[in-house]
Model the fold of this input.
Amino acid sequence: MTGAAGRAGVLPLYPQPGPERPLRGLYLDHDLRGSGGGLIYANFISSLDGRVALPNTRGVFGVPAAIANPRDWWLFQELAIQADSVLVSGRYLRARARGEVQDLFAAFHDPRYSELRAWREAQGLSAWPRVVVLSRAVDFAPPAGIEASRLLVLTGASGAVSAGAQRLRVAGAAVIAAGPENDIDARRVRGVLSEAGCGLVYAVGGPQVLHLLASGGALDRLYLSLAPQLLGGERLSTLVEGDAFEPAPVLRLHSLYYDQTTHGAGAGQLFACYAVGEAEDVRERG
Ligand SMILES: NC(=O)c1ccc[n+]([C@@H]2O[C@H](COP(=O)([O-])OP(=O)(O)OC[C@H]3O[C@@H](n4cnc5c(N)ncnc54)[C@H](OP(=O)(O)O)[C@@H]3O)[C@@H](O)[C@H]2O)c1
Done:
């Protein structure tokens, strides 16, 4: 493993407690590719008081530095490397172009993750995933280092006929209207992704994207790292941002691990994975 993630193990707590096992391979062993086609899975790290993003000293929102850590980041890469498609927001691509945010595509090119790329190659997967972008504004350029032909942009009807959409199409990207006006219709997301052959989709957007996916029945698993810290702060993002869910979806604990070595002696973070809805239950029984 990259030295950053260290050698210490994690303790499985659920469904089968213990024994300690290596961090390395933890989420590769979830065998997402074996779970049958178009699983859509998201991943967040949160503080105990529910902060997933806070403004930094320049006022730019991002993952709070106090909770970001290499062991969680390693698992992020293990989830990324299994995906056929990585789903981001248009806002993320604009922030990436300004150099303001972490590189969510690191697994596919960063030297620290070469062993994960070797794993990907051994599965017969393409070196790079498809990049799915959810956007109203459609005002971003194809991200540096990623071929435009890998981009699939989902937007509303107006975004799909915008000048930005036209520029992206000329560059080689696909732009699809998945809603009648400005917004993507959440209920159409799973169908559009499936028709476009997006396969296993790793959703790494933020709270609005998670809300969209969950409200549209387009989320199968939520990976959630819980850092044992209280952060406070009055401007903040939590896991989801949007209207109240009605009814509120119930998530089922799929697995839970205790990582003793992060955040100081014995403090520990938790790596949880929740399954959402019936589709995941059926896959697991099948
Ligand atoms: N702690 C964590 O694990 C974690 C994980 C992910 C993100 N974050 C943080 O969360 C913050 C926000 O992340 P983010 O900007 O990637 O995600 P986001 O807030 O979920 O995405 C917002 C963008 O998604 C698009 N969008 C949302 N709803 C839409 C709809 N109905 N139809 C069409 N497009 C829609 C819009 O893009 P356009 O503006 O292009 O129209 C919108 O600006 C960042 O600070 C990030 O660092 C934290």
About this structure: Residues 70-81 form the longest helix (12 residues).
